[in-house]
Recover the amino acids of this structure.
């Protein structure tokens, strides 16, 4: 009898919690009706960025929906994202992102998922420090050989960590972000693999921080970690957990993204031999008998245009990292109450037929002047996001992609077997990035 009472009370409290705030906020942007508890989450599903684009003719550029317990706005065009995201009141974070608890052992730590003054200070400090050192300067690199045993172990943990992105209870955090507030007791009942892998990665990073602590000299920082250690003596907002999370954030934001772009590059060039040969021709005639370096970039407009097109078609971070309003906001007559998730629909910007004409065609020429000599930018090209929280690693990522792609194509030819079935350019969403469909490629060394 007692257990029935307890069950009734628990059910009542849970229903009250889940249904409270289910009334559409006043002047909220239009969107399809939802269902209790789930709102529009099931309707929008895993490919919500695509559905939001498909709903555009009916509801317009600004879509208002409820994802589980979270009122959410999709901004589906580049002008709105640019205008809103340049304002500080759009720089908050909510738990909407199911990956948040993967890197954050504590809410509001690190850089990607922190918010408020803590994020402002840490982003400013990080930008300054990385600029001082230069992202690619030798002093700021930890160098490892390809078969270094420590690196091999690290990469294994990392792969496991990414593979566990949608494991266990995480999809529930996506629907009901408030559960993240009580994650500690929940994970006692439902232990998650990703927590274990994160702890292992933290152990690895903790050792690196400790080594730095032992060998650093005050006033003479050698790299980002030394600088963080120095900064941590001046503020309470940079504890060890923030340093660990920031380093993991850089790993997470900086490795999968770049490698996925290269995967897409081989996938697209393998299917478009004509474009690959044009690319190879430009590289081989401009850079003779040596490696391609960053200083060659201005002389390689077709490479630049092809890279822009690869990043447009692949749209690897289709909704970036959801933002949240830090206060009640009115935008174009709509109200976004404090705490509303604001999704920059990067996928919509890169794939909208109204903006690109033929978005499903891989066509680097769209980024070139008619004489093929000048790169022509398009304001809808925003794979790195825009505004105050845009990608911190954009210039590093673009340098890396340029160097990898040019030096690869200078030396190899990528193709697909004759019996490889045709592939869609849509991509498969892993929860973190959009990946190309599984495919086979053939690699031939160029003479
Ligand atoms: C092809 C490669 C990459 C793409 C497409 C990409 C894309 C993005 C996008 C869309 C965002 C979210 C923007 C927003 O919230 O509005 C972001 C944030 C971020 N990215 Fe990247 N990124 C790439 C590579 C990198 C690299 C190499 C690093 C660092 C080593 C990096 C570090 C970050 C960080 C720290 C943030 C969070 C910024 C903040 O919250 O203030 N990214 N990135």
């Amino acid at each position: 009898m007692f257990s029935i009472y307890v069950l009734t009370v628990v059910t009542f409290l849970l229903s009250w919690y889940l249904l409270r705030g289910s009334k559409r906020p006043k002047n909220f942007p239009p969107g399809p009706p939802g269902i209790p508890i789930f709102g529009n989450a099931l309707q929008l599903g895993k490919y919500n960025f695509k559905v939001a684009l498909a709903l555009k003719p009916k509801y317009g550029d600004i879509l208002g929906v409820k994802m589980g317990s979270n009122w959410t706005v999709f901004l589906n065009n580049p002008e709105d994202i640019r205008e809103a995201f340049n304002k500080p009141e759009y720089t908050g974070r909510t738990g909407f992102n199911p990956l948040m608890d993967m890197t954050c052992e504590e809410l509001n730590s690190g850089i990607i998922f922190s918010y408020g003054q803590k994020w402002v200070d840490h982003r400013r400090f990080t930008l300054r420090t990385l600029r001082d050192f230069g992202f690619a300067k030798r002093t700021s690199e930890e160098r490892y050989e390809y078969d270094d045993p420590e690196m091999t172990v690290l990469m294994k943990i990392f792969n496991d960590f990414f593979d566990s992105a949608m494991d266990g209870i995480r999809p529930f955090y996506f629907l009901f972000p408030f559960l993240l507030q009580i994650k500690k007791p929940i994970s006692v009942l439902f232990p998650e693999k990703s927590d274990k892998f994160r702890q292992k990665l933290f152990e690895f990073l903790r050792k690196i921080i400790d080594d730095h602590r032992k060998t650093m000299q005050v006033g003479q920082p050698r790299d980002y970690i030394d600088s963080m250690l120095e900064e941590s003596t001046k503020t309470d907002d940079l504890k060890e957990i923030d340093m660990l999370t920031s380093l993991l954030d850089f790993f997470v934001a900086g490795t999968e993204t770049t490698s996925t772009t290269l995967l897409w590059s081989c996938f697209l060039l393998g299917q478009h031999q004509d474009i690959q040969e044009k690319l190879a021709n430009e590289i081989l005639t401009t850079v003779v008998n040596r490696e391609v370096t960053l200083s060659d970039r201005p002389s390689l407009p077709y490479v630049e245009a092809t890279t822009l097109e690869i990043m447009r078609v692949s749209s690897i971070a289709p909704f970036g990292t959801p933002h949240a309003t830090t206060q009640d906001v009115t935008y174009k007559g709509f109200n976004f109450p404090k705490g509303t998730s604001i999704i920059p629909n990067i996928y919509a910007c890169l794939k909208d037929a109204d903006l690109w004409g033929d978005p499903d065609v891989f066509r680097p020429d769209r980024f070139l002047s008619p004489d093929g000599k000048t790169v022509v930018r398009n304001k809808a090209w925003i794979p790195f996001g825009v505004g105050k929280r845009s990608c911190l690693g954009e210039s590093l990522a673009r340098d890396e992609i340029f160097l990898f792609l040019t030096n690869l194509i200078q030396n190899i030819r990528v193709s697909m077997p004759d019996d490889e079935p045709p592939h869609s350019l849509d991509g498969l969403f892993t929860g973190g990035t959009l990946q190309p469909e599984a495919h086979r490629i053939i690699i031939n060394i160029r003479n």
About this structure: The beta strands are 62-67, 70-75, 323-324, 329-331, 334-336, 341-344, 412-415, 428-429, 434-435, 442-445. Confidence is low (pLDDT under 50) at residues 136-141. Residues 181 and 376 are 46 Å apart (CA to CA). Residues 240-271 form the longest helix (32 residues).
